[in-house]
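Structure request: Exodeoxyribonuclease 7 small subunit, Testudinibacter aquarius.
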Amino acid sequence: MDKLGNAKKTDFESTLSQLESIVSRLESGELPLEEALSEFEKGIKLAQQGQQRLQKAEQRVQILLEKSSVAPLADYDNND
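Returned structure:
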């Protein structure tokens, strides 16, 4: 991994790509039930991994901004 965290970006991008592939296969409706359940389970795990990576990235950004002299940030509210 380089100083900018590109290995983690690749990991996240890979996770997202795998998840998109699983969603496409599930949406096709052509998988047998057992295979669809297996793919769904993999998809749930990948989604959780992606969410964890995003949360860690958000925490890192928050820490970096708190340490800098940038203007204070307001908390994000996605209900706006």
